[in-house]
């Protein structure tokens, strides 16, 4: 299926809508497997680990598919790490990179997981001081996330490497951190950076050089270097995805040069979330109403799912591809097929939350940007592509007391399988006293 929905399989969405109701997320297993193979084929010098950034989408069925393909896991919270482990993934395959400083029972759990083989990526001086004795006593090698001071993201809010964000041990604190670590007799066998999501490849390449400089200067024991995630995926036809081959060849060359200079063979890691998952997912909604705000206004299409199931347009002004599918399963228009868009009206897609930002047609400043499409009838399906990553996982799904929606997998054998049930209203209120 992939990002190009062909007329012949638009009927899948009608099937999913009939069987599971709308709104519903539909994930395509074949695309997911293809994306996993794609990242695993990244050129490298002395070995490659790919950690799937599970924050993008943590559904256990999807985690298992990714695991079976041979990817490792990047967890961003203790709960994410627990969740991956609950899905059956070995602790040895998980690295925890978190802003948390676990205390009490969480701390005990962290220790148990580290003893079971989970890698801990130290992200601050405080985290280092808190974990030092335990790591020393148990002879556990650590990873360190370095804040390089330079980053890149598709928006300011997705830059995690510059000084306006606070992820990792800042380069200015490295000497202090490493002096402390030496004093404690600690070993760092991995070095990590993640500079942001969807930024320019040039900055990603520059980060490779910078990071290898840190490894050379400060980390004599490191055998693994992680360049983080952030590889851009093209959701829209006019977007350009990261070139895995080109970035890999660059990294390979740099890691080989590092070997020539130092005699050290580094294994390379990457941590893609978006690149693996974004185009595997579709959000299937139903058109429930239409309204016009007159000559100087817009024609609004009201879909029964919006910001509470895909917040990315409101949060970042992100664009997703739109597909209009008739109730009979016919593809009426697609952003990937210009012939279905020419001479079409411009419409604004909104959801059912009482919030004027509940729109799928916004720019970064929150202004409305109408989009061309075939005007649907009430009851037709409105399908939003590119919704595999950071939609189900990152949306305020109980806003306006809407229930969390189901997730369905289109298996490689073309079966539609429910992989998460729809939440009930009772579940929303069950912890209230
Ligand atoms: N590694 C670390 C430590 C991260 O914090 C992240 C994402 C990734 C890897 C994966 O980045 P990706 O390959 O997905 O760009 N919610 C945003 C993306 C920000 C994610 C934050 N960290 C979005 O919807 O575009």
Plain-language structure description:
- There is one protein chain.
- The protein is of the alpha/beta class and 433 residues long.
- The chain folds into two domains: 11-23 and 278-423, Lyase, Ornithine Decarboxylase, Chain A, domain 1, CATH 2.40.37; 29-272, Alanine racemase (TIM Barrel, Alpha-Beta Barrel).
- The protein has twelve helices and 19 strands.
- It has helices at residues 11-20, 29-40, 60-68, 78-86, 104-115, 125-137, 174-184, 201-218, 244-262, 274-277, 312-316, 425-429, and strands spanning 24-28, 48-53, 72-75, 94-97, 119-122, 142-147, 169-170, 188-192, 224-226, 267-270, 281-292, 299-303, 322-325, 331-334, 346-350, 371-372, 381-384, 407-410, 416-420.
- The strands form two sheets. Strands 1, 11, 12, 13, 14, 15, 16, 17, 18 and 19 form a ten-stranded mixed sheet that branches. The chain has an eight-stranded parallel β-barrel with strand order 2-3-4-5-6-8-9-10.
- Helix 6 links the parallel strand 5 and strand 6 (142-147).
- Helix 8 (201-218) packs parallel to helix 9 (244-262).
- The two termini are 45 Å apart.
- The site of ligand LLP has 23 residues, from helix 10.
């Amino acid at each position: 299926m992939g990002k190009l929905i062909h007329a012949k399989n638009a009927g899948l969405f009608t099937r999913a809508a009939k069987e599971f109701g709308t709104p519903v997320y539909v994930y395509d297993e074949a695309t997911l497997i293809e994306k996993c193979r794609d990242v695993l084929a990244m050129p490298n010098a002395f070995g490659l680990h790919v950690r799937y950034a599970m924050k993008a989408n943590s559904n256990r069925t999807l985690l298992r598919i990714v695991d079976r393909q041979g990817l490792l896991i990047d967890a961003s919270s203790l709960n994410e790490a627990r969740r991956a482990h609950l899905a059956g993934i070995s602790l040895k395959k998980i690295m925890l990179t978190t802003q948390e400083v676990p205390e009490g029972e969480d701390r005990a759990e962290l220790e148990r997981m580290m003893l079971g083989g989970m890698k801990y990526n130290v992200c601050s001086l405080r985290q280092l001081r808190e974990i030092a004795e335990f790591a020393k006593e148990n002879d556990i090698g650590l990873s360190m996330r370095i804040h390089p001071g330079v980053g890149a993201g598709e928006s300011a809010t997705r830059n995690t490497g510059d000084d306006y964000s606070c992820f990792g041990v800042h380069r200015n604190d490295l000497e202090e951190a490493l002096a402390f670590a030496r004093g404690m007799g600690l070993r760092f066998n991995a070095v990590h950076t993640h500079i942001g999501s969807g930024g320019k490849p040039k900055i990603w390449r520059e980060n490779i050089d910078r990071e290898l400089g840190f490894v050379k200067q400060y980390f004599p024991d490191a055998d693994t270097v992680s360049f983080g995630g952030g590889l851009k995926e093209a959701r829209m036809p006019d977007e350009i995805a990261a070139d895995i081959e080109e970035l890999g060849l660059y990294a390979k060359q740099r890691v080989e040069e590092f070997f020539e200079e130092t005699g050290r063979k580094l294994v390379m890691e990457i941590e893609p979330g978006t690149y693996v998952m974004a185009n595997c997912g579709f959000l299937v909604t139903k058109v429930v109403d239409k309204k016009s705000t007159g000559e100087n206004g817009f024609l609004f299409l009201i879909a029964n799912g919006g910001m509470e199931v895909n917040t990315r347009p409101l949060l970042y002004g992100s664009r997703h591809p739109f597909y209009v599918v008739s109730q009979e399963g016919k593809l009426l228009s697609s952003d990937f097929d210009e012939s279905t868009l020419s001479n079409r009206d411009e419409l604004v897609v909104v959801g059912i939350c009482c919030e004027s930002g509940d729109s799928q047609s916004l720019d970064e400043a929150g202004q409305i940007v109408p989009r061309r499409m075939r005007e649907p009838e009430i009851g037709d399906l409105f399908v939003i592509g590119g919704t595999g990553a950071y939609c189900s996982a990152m949306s305020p799904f109980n806003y306006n007391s809407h229930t969390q929606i189901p997730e369905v997998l289109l298996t490689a054998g073309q079966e539609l399988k429910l992989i998460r049930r729809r939440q009930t209203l009772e579940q929303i209120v069950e912890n209230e006293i």
